[in-house]
Amino acid sequence: MEILAYGVQADEKPLLEAACAGRHEVRCLEVFLNSDTAPLAAEHEVISTSVNAELDATTLRTLAKGGTRMIAQRSTGFNNIDLDVAAELGLTISRVSYYSPYSVAEFAWTLALSVNRRIIRAANRTREFDFRLDGLMGADVHGTTVGVVGTGKIGECFARIAHGFGTRLLGWDVAENAYCRDKLGMEYTSLERLLAESDLISLHVPLLPDTHHLIDESALARMKHDAILINSSRGGLVDTHALVETLRAGRLRGVGLDVYEEETGLFFFDRSLEGVADDTLARLMTFPQVLVTSHQAYFTATAVGQIIETTVDNVDDYVAGRRTENTLVPR
């Protein structure tokens, strides 16, 4: 069977081709799936999509009309998919339930340490042979309070690293992680208290209706004046307009974002020549204490390899008529 894979990055392509070898043929496209590119899938029973695919009702209906019956998404999150319409159309939708949590947790700490120690500003200066230390003072992580919002697999890995730094750990989640609580000494508390007491806050919850804009104007107002906020989960967790207003007011010592709520159509593309019309993102990136990366926290050889292998396994399961924990539709 030939799989049409959308949104395949250059570094991802050889891994995908190797995983499919001897099992399926694969045709890789650089373009991302949306309503405009959906017709390219005509006569392909199985397609694979990336995290930024736009699988809304229009796109799904176009795919189904063209003969697509199975969509294998190469990511864990699925907030970009209209699952009800997919079920109505009789499509099979799968995702990757698990891949290396260390990739995202380590990158979240990379963001945190970079904004804390002003690494980007320092590197830019030294490239111009400016070796002054003015404005580069950071803070010890040891002895600070770290708030982990969401203590699943990735949140636990982030907390393990925080424990190694010698921090006090606060956690918030719908269910307590026994390892974080008993082995790392994490204290579970309300989100309001976590925001108020933490020097560093890192977000590791999925984007759901209840978590959309979890960090809104009131949540930002509860944070310490000199707190650091890190988001490597989903952009919609943070009200970006409220974040910009908070930074304009001179609050927050650092912000590290690997995701952005309006990233679709921006992230994974080169917009350097045409500019970006998103005024909120443009304003956000003018603040010197803000570091924005383009949804790359998962992008390690280990994690991407696991994602691709699971994706191809999901296609095998579809061909064999099997449902697994990765099957979103049919439920």
How would you characterize the overall build of this protein?
- By secondary structure, the chain is an alpha/beta fold.
- The chain folds into two domains: 2-99 and 300-329, NAD(P)-binding Rossmann-like Domain (Rossmann fold); 101-292, Rossmann fold (3-Layer(aba) Sandwich), CATH 3.40.50.720.
- Helices cover 34% and strands 15% of the residues.
- The protein has twelve helices and 13 strands.
- It has helices spanning 13-20, 57-65, 83-88, 101-116, 119-127, 153-165, 178-182, 191-197, 217-222, 240-248, 279-284, 301-320, and strands spanning 2-5, 25-28, 46-49, 70-73, 92-94, 145-149, 168-172, 187-188, 200-203, 228-231, 254-257, 290-292, 327-329.
- The strands form two sheets. Strands 8-7-6-9-10-11-12 form a seven-stranded parallel beta sheet, sandwiched between helices.
- Helix 1 (13-20) packs parallel to helix 12 (301-320) and helix 4 packs across helix 6 (153-165).
- The protein is globular.
- The two termini are 24 Å apart.
- It comes from Streptacidiphilus jiangxiensis.
- Belongs to the D-isomer specific 2-hydroxyacid dehydrogenase family.
- Keywords: NAD, Oxidoreductase.
- InterPro entries: D-isomer_2_OHA_DH_cat_dom, D-isomer_DH_CS, D-isomer_DH_CS1, D-isomer_DH_NAD-bd, D-LDH-like, NAD(P)-bd_dom_sf.
- Residues 110-297 form the D-isomer specific 2-hydroxyacid dehydrogenase NAD-binding domain.
Helix count, per DSSP?
12
Strand count, sense and closure of the main sheet? 7 strands, parallel
CATH architecture of the largest domain: 3-Layer(aba) Sandwich
Which fold does the CATH topology of the largest domain refer to? Answer: Rossmann fold
Distance between termini?
Answer: 24 Å
If strands are numbered along the chain, what order do they take across the biggest sheet?
8-7-6-9-10-11-12
Tell me, what's the shape? Answer: globular
The CATH superfamily label of the largest domain reads: NAD(P)-binding Rossmann-like Domain
Considering DSSP H and I runs of 4 or more, what fraction of the residues is helical?
25-40%
Q: How many domain regions?
A: 2
Mean pLDDT: 97
The structure class reads alpha/beta
| SSE string, helices as H and strands as E | EHEEHEHEHHEHEHEHEHEHEHEHE
Protein name: D-lactate dehydrogenase
Family: Belongs to the D-isomer specific 2-hydroxyacid dehydrogenase family.
Keywords: NAD, Oxidoreductase
GO molecular function: D-lactate dehydrogenase (NAD+) activity; NAD binding
